[in-house]
């Protein structure tokens, strides 16, 4: 399965969802499958309406929150606004190289604002490993904000050259570098020992 169709939403925005509840039916290339949630929450926003076809694997289809009080914050959120947030704050051009230092062309991906009140986030899980090929729309990581856990998607093709914030790292400030993406697979090795020398101080929890 590479894409799917949202056949039907079983829950409405604002509904309380219990662990194991069916929230949607997703039609794949082989069958129609029930999509269940694994924790108690509230459905704050449906981003992909019923009947939408060719939804890529890893795409953000809805937003869930821990408390009903947080639902209004996502009332006007759209996929376009979410994508604009990624595009405007996630990609940072490479810094000027220090004398005697030459790095290949690369893109530094920084933590964007994923909710209206977000000031920091937690890197829950990386969905890609260093060295993997990335395609536009691929799910790169899961980021926990002050209101929800949101999938962080890749905005352009490349290769994941360096992960700069480990899984489980909490209180990562907005704008902190998360990873580095390069255009060519052959450029990955150049970042094996790369260390960020400027920017936010992010502490990594003990193993």
How would you briefly describe this protein structure?
By secondary structure, the protein is mainly β. The protein has one helix at residues 79-89; strands at 3-9, 16-17, 22-27, 32-36, 41-46, 55-56, 62-65, 91-92, 106-110, 120-126, 133-134, 139-144, 149-153, 158-163, 172-173, 177-182.
What is the helix tally?
A: 1
Mean pLDDT: 80
Major beta-sheet overview: 5 strands, antiparallel
**CATH architecture label name of the largest domain:** Beta Barrel
Topology as a string of helices (H) and strands (E): EEEEEEEHEEEEEEEEE
User: Could you state the CATH homologous superfamily of the largest domain?
Assistant: RNA polymerase II/Efflux pump adaptor protein, barrel-sandwich hybrid domain
GO cellular component, one term: pyruvate dehydrogenase complex
Keywords: Lipoyl, Transit peptide
Domain Lipoyl-binding: 1-65, 106-182
Protein name: Lipoyl-binding domain-containing protein
Question: What are its keywords?
Answer:
OB fold (Dihydrolipoamide Acetyltransferase, E2P), 35% strand, Lipoyl-binding domain-containing protein, globular, lipoyl, dihydrolipoyllysine-residue acetyltransferase activity, mainly beta, Single_hybrid_motif, four-stranded antiparallel beta sheet, 207 residues, five-stranded antiparallel beta sheet, 1 helix
Explain this structure:
With 207 residues, this protein is mainly beta. It has 2 domains: 3-75, Beta Barrel (OB fold (Dihydrolipoamide Acetyltransferase, E2P)); 106-193, Beta Barrel (OB fold (Dihydrolipoamide Acetyltransferase, E2P)). 5% of the residues lie in helices and 35% in strands. β3 and β4 (32-36) form a beta hairpin. The longest helix is centred in the middle third of the chain and has 11 residues, at 79-89. Residues 95-100 and 199-207 have low confidence and may be disordered. This is Lipoyl-binding domain-containing protein.
């Amino acid at each position: 399965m590479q894409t799917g169709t949202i056949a039907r939403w079983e829950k409405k925005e604002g509904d309380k969802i219990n662990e194991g509840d069916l929230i949607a039916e997703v039609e794949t290339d082989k069958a129609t499958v029930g999509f269940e949630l694994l924790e108690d929450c509230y459905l704050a926003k449906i981003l992909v309406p019923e009947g939408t076809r060719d939804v890529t694997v890893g795409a953000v289809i809805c937003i869930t929150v821990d408390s009903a009080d947080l639902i209004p914050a996502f009332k006007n959120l759209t996929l376009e606004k979410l994508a604009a947030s990624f595009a405007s704050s996630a990609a940072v051009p490479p810094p000027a190289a220090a004398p005697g230092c030459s790095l290949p062309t690369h893109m530094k991906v920084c933590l964007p604002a994923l909710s209206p009140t977000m000031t920091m986030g937690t890197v829950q899980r990386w969905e890609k490993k260093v060295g993997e090929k990335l395609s536009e729309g691929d799910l790169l990581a899961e980021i926990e904000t002050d209101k929800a856990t949101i999938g962080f998607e890749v905005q352009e093709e490349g290769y994941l050259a360096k992960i700069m914030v480990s899984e489980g790292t909490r209180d990562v400030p907005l704008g902190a570098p998360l990873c580095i993406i390069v255009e060519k697979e052959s450029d990955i090795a150049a970042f094996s020992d790369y260390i960020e020398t400027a920017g936010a101080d992010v502490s990594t929890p003990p193993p």
